Amino acid sequence: MILNAAGPASSPSSEVPDLLLPRRRSSRRCELRILRISLHREMVTGGRESLMVTVAEHEAVQPAFQTAVQKPTESMRRIGGPPFPHCKMSGTPCKRSSSPRSMSRSPGRSASRSPGRSPSRRLDDTDEAQLERLYKPVFVLKPSSVKCSEGQTARFDLKVVGRPMPDTFWFHNGQQVGNDYTHKIVVKEDGIQSLIIVPAMPQDSGEWTVIAQNRAGRTSIALTLTVEARESLTRPQFIDKLKNLTVKQGTLVELAVKAIGNPLPDIVWLKNSDIISPQKHPHIKIEGTKGQAKFQIPSSSGADSAWYTATAINKAGRDTTRCRVNVEVDFAAPQAERRHIITKGTYKAKDIAAPELEPLHQRYGQDQWEEGDLYDKEKQQKPQFKKKLTSIRMKRSSAAHFECRLTPIGDPTMLVEWLHDGKPLEAANRLRMVNEFGYCSLDYEEAYARDSGIVTCRATNKYGVDQTSATLIVKEEKGLVEETQLPEGRKGGHRMEEFERIAHEGGPAGVTTDDEYEKSKPEIVLLPEAARAYEGEIARFRCRVTGYPLPKVNWYLNGQLIRKSKRYRLKYDGIYYLEIVDVKSYDTGEVRVVADNPLGTTEHTVKIEIQQKEDFRSVLRRAPEQKAAEAAQDPGRVGFDVMKVDQTSESAQDREVVKLRKTQRVVHEKTSEETDELKSKFKRRTEEGFYESISAVDLKSRKRDDSYEDLLKKTKDDLLHRLKEKEEAERKLLEEQGQITIPTYKPERVQLSPSMEAPKILERITSKTVAPMDEVRFTLRVVGRPEPEVQWFKNGVLVEKTERVFWYWPEDHLCELVIRDVTAEDSASIMVKAVNVAGEASSHAFLLVQAKAVVSFIQQLEDTSANEKDTIVTFECETNEPFVKVKWLKNNMEIFPGDKYRTHSDRKVHFLSVLVISMKDAAEYSCVVIDEESIRSSARLHVEGAALELKKHLENIEVPETYSGDFEVELSREDTEGSWFFGDKEISPSSKYVISSRRGRQSLSVKDVKKTDQGKYTFVCGELKTSASLKMKLRPVTLLQPLSDLTVCEGDIAQLEVRFSQENVEGSWMKNGTAIIASDRVHIVIDKQIHKLLLENVSREDAASYAFIVPAQDISTSGKLSVQTIDIVNPLKDVSSVEGTKAVLEAKISAQDVLSVKWYLNEKLLTASDRLQMVSKGSKQRLVFNRTFASDEGRYKLVVGKVDTSCSLSVEKVRIVKQMEDKVCSESQNVTFSVEVSHAGIDPLWIFRNQQLKAGPKYKMESSGKMHSLTVVNTMKDEEGAYSFHAGEKTCSAKLTVS
To answer: Where would one find coiled-coil regions in this protein (predicted)?
Structure first.
């Protein structure tokens, strides 16, 4: 049996007495101490067998120790001294002690050596001054106001200190905020707390308040969060687009566009993808850039024939429109070719001219850049690759070239770096890198097999990062010399061959010495093996795979593809390795390796088992204490032996008899066997218990009531009295028997498993103060495995269930103690203990039952008078009880502390201060007890206002039409409002009249002023009155677009249009000086600022001079209308075509450059498209089909003015004779799709991913008669998908799969 012995208290008074003292006195002390130890043991074990010591009186010697036996799980935390040594004794067992369990501390023990005391003891021993030493929260790091954009992250950081540590609460516009999807409250290890709002939304704007509170008080800080809403963006869209144009040399070329979008887009012009700038194209004039623009070439030449593109750009995107401008140039005779003839026998040296440096944008092919791609320091431009890198497959020692194009061009903060397999590319003489004008290139003068991998170009600036990657594959050519280089006669080479042969014969299957490149499917020749590991270790797998082409090997864990990372290590050195670092229990399952190449796939699966490490923590807590041999070496201990004897006694259990032997004088030394780990745990437990014990103190740091103090003192005295009586009775009994018996304590041996968990308290019980006859509930939330049992104690005594006192489990892991109809005798220390085989946990609280005191006001509030604009007025009242919670009302509405009101309580006295007095503060103020609202004290505040007078009178104003007119008057008092009148009619607030009042300033705003708003406006306030007049000022009208001469064809619609700077301008249309009256054929239209005159079915009688006159503004404009009569010179002719080929319908009319022509198919109007174009060239009118469809067949009609001509178009349908076939290939192979159609000479169309393919290095297209083919060169993985062939409206498709 192992016992613990605690040394004497550390105070000088507890030193070991001299051995010359009377032996009897020493014996009695020993007996008394052992009795206390036995009583303490019985209190701790809670119902288990007690351990007593039996000693004969003549064998007792000087007692210089204290003894206690604890449960194995308690380790050494309850006793401060080192363990007892082993010793054997003999004696007679005595009856089991039945003394009550007590939580009081033994008088012989020092408080400093008793950290395991209950909360009731600690509260009794705690100095009153220590309980009152509380500190109000203080912010050492204050949060500040934040301003951000919508979608960004808003963060508030703070650090608060206080005693005890305060709790923090967040409020948004008065509403408390907790952790949710967008609001996160986190605490760092250094004590800094953060409120993170992500993403921040406009509704998060407003006032935020953080409150820190503890028992000493509360502190708050208010701050502001401003979230700016995002701008509503709309992509640009052209509403007036460009159209193809043909002009003669020397004539005016004019193009105009109009685009909409938000914000209004910028218009950029390009000529053949080259940005038009004044420096490069001085003869081109461009007017306007925002929303609409006009493009002019005053005198065109042959060099101006080109494709012109207008691009509308804003933050939301872009839109483009383009057209073709053809300039017809007069024919000029070619000049004779000049040659330089060199006679035989003479040689002319090459002319070496100075190198001409091309502009950067030409040197690097920058003709595709747009103006928006240039760097603008006013914009936040992220890096963007407009042209990506292209993968390369090549042979060893060849040159490799990578290039890409990057925007914004000219960014001084741009950083460009090249990476190889994710790592920075190391500098070398054979590498050359270029980064100029947005052009980035990387050149390998010679590439080797080690250069194979992923090449990445990464661009970074302060606004973001972008990158583009491509694959470089360098095929290694055979360069190994296998023949021996040893001199003839040497046998070393033959011996090396013999060793290699023997090694291969004894090696694993599948390892051969031949170097053949025959294609074969993958085969796993070295199979991976199943693995078993503990949590936190490394699981390793390996395999060897053969096959040609070289197979691709992937590893899978429980069906999930494994990629290289810190946790998963993948290596290859001829053998494929997989290492899983820091394995977890959820990794248990299957590991599968898959090898595949174009010829097939193979795989193998093995098991992986992860075992949990055994948890020894619970076992260590129950470990036996030091052996006697080890403890006996320590100086200053009293030795005794423990010997088991077989004797018959009243108890059926075995006993051990302790026999004390004589001892020499012992010098005790203060020792400690506590480890740092025990000290830290002991300290935390002490801290936790301390705050639980003082939770009985009022949350506002108020002193405990006298009744509560008396109750605790009475309870303690009763317990000590019962202990003293029991000790006296026990001592007398032991003196008569002359021995002390220690019953044997045999703890049950429990086999612990790693899945067991000691009880853990999630929600502790809290102290409560209630009134008599109330019902009180203590709630405990605890978890453990197996489910713990719960025991409740009252003043250290186990509580038994009754109808009035009982406990139950309302839900899982939640136990609730209920005490009904409480009385003053129920006031006690409440403890709950949760126990299972793995350990135990406990929680403490106090229950105080006391009658509520009757609260009343012994000093009432008194009426107070103040003048307007006084600084402060204070109300004061007093209650008969201290620390009464009150609230303040204004006219029976609760008011709260802030900028206007300040509240304060000092024990019994309560104060309310009203700041910056105004007339609105005149009211009845009340102080109300929160717990009993019928108890209140009220008083009235009387405010005397200042004299009312006009400080600023109304003034006459003159306002332009449609503008707003504002009147303002200022009064001497801010709380007074008046009335507004227009003439004799009172004005009410509306969309027309806006009335406002702020700090004595009265304002009236008249919106959209018109003639009817002119007149007299008056403001009246009581007997005060002031007036002023409003006069409207007409705005001048400007003619923005006058009439111009117009020529139309007979039978068409003529439209004459003028535009003014203002809307609804009154004017009239004139024809040869005569006013025009609207009719069924003549229409007069007014659209805000635009006035239109429309003439339908124009005839020669309509040719005249037209004018628009505005008499009020003395404005007039005129233009001439000419009517042409057009005849058909060459009518349309019937045309036959094959589907998928080009067809043209052509007619000739008598007039030149007529654009108002219409084409019809079966009486339906046609519109131009990419496939169908309407061309007007001189007097010829053409309808061009780039590719005919079978649905194009029908009757076509050309209408010009009142004349028309028609013809028929017949289309012969095409059939696809041989369809495309699906293809499967490996990377870098060439794939050909073939199609056969029924007719020759059609124009085929190849489509991939909804985009038309064009012939080039990547795609080769061939057409031979009826056969058409498409070849995809060096196929890559990203080029697999569906390819389709179009012949007119007939299509077929096939799928390409790249392995």
So the answer is: 709-736
Q: Is 1256 exposed, middle or buried (0-12, 13-18, 19+ CB in 10 A)?
A: exposed
Question: What percent of the chain stands above pLDDT 90?
Answer: 23
* Residue 1125 and residue 1086 in contact, taking contact as beta carbons nearer than 8 Å: no
CA-nearest of 1027, 1021, 918 to 967 is 1027
CB atoms within 10 A of CB 349: 5
Contact 1118, 1072 (CB under 8 A): no
- In the sheet with 985-986, reading across from the earlier edge strand, the strands are 957-960, 1024-1033, 1015-1021, 979-982, 985-986
Residue % of the chain over a pLDDT of 70: 73
Q: Which residues contact 58 (CB under 8 A, 6 or more apart)?
A: none
As given in the structure block, the two tokens for residue 521 are 């499917």
Measured at the CA of 359, the angle between CA 324 and CA 1256, to 5 degrees, comes to: 55
Q: Rounded CA gap, 132 and 702, in Å?
A: 8
Q: How many helices (H) and strands (E) does the chain have?
A: 9, 95
Handedness of CA 634, 637, 641, 642 (dihedral sign): negative
Picking from 257, 247, 253, the residue whose alpha carbon sits closest to that of residue 294 is 257
Residue 1159 CB-half CA count within 13 A: 25
pLDDT in tens, 786-811: 889 999 999 888 999 898 999 999 88
Question: Which of 750, 703, 567 shows the shortest CA–CA distance to 131?
Answer: 703
Burial of 1139 (0-12, 13-18, 19+ CB in 10 A): buried
Tokens of 896: 């709260």
Query: How far is CA 1011 from its chain centroid?
Result: 57
d(CA 1132, CA 1155): 18
Neighbouring CB atoms inside 10 A of 1044's CB total 12
Rounded (5°) CA angle 805-809-811 = 145
501, containing H or E segment: helix 492-506
